[in-house]
Predict the structure.
Amino acid sequence: MRIAVSGAHIVGKSTLAAELARRMPRHVVVAEPYDILAERGYEFSHPPTIDDYIIQLKQSLISLRRQSPNLIFDRCPLDFLGYIAASPGSARFDVEAWREPIARAMARLDLVVFLPADPAWNPDIPSDDAALRLAVDDALRDIIDGDSYDLCEDVAILALDGARDRQIETVLTHIEQASARRS
């Protein structure tokens, strides 16, 4: 099964991806595009620009081309659409030009696990960073819940809510039920 863990920053994506890999030992976590690019020497602006998010989107598309069936991706293309939508100057980004490659990449996933932002979980985030996180969360909800870009029709979406300590069990139960329906 190919799974992506999606959401704004500081919502627990990497922690959930690592725990999924621990509980699903045949699966490997694919690092988020930011980490892959930083390791290769890419220098991101602070704060990141739309161009920084576009290069991460491109890396996400490349990562999703991997052929292994047992991967857990820390982020997916939808994340970067959310960051772009929440950024100043987002109107200059042409979603139409990206629709087909993103839809193809999303179709390579079996499941997207969306972790919504909850300000109560991370009260120590600086206010400007918290504002961006919540704006990205709003944009991702529009993309995922309403599929405003028509990119999610070929992939199951599991939006998590509730206590973090139950999230891993919710995901594993969803995977078991989906496997049983396919059998």
